[in-house]
Specification:
With 105 residues, the protein is an all-beta fold. The protein contains no helices and seven strands.
């Protein structure tokens, strides 16, 4: 869910509490002999005020790099029974230039 309003000038483009859509992209099994293949996610879109789906991408608030799939479990958090602890925050970016129509007041 979106943690705060995203505004352009005085217009709320994406409201606080709006659901963000994504999918789990991997996990389980072994990747190499030593490394485990941990679950990752990819955020895909969020709905703007007018119903337009805006493409997004994310990074962990503590993460770095431009990789599209992110580890669900943030660095320093480890709980085998939970993929993403409640309250975990991720930095989200709009994926490229996108257009929505804003009606004048």
């Amino acid at each position: 869910m979106v943690a705060r309003d995203f505004r352009v000038d005085d217009v709320v483009i994406v409201a606080k509490g709006t659901k963000v859509t994504g999918h789990v992209a991997g996990g389980g099994g072994r990747k190499l002999l030593v490394m485990r293949n941990r679950p990752t996610f990819k955020l895909t879109d969020v709905e703007a005020f007018d119903g337009t789906k805006l493409k997004i991408r994310a990074t962990s608030a503590a993460g770095r790099g431009a990789k599209e799939d992110r580890l669900i479990e943030p660095p320093g958090k480890h709980d085998k029974g939970v993929l993403a602890p409640a309250g975990t925050r991720y930095q989200v970016y709009f994926d490229g230039n996108q257009t929505i129509a804003i009606k004048p007041h």
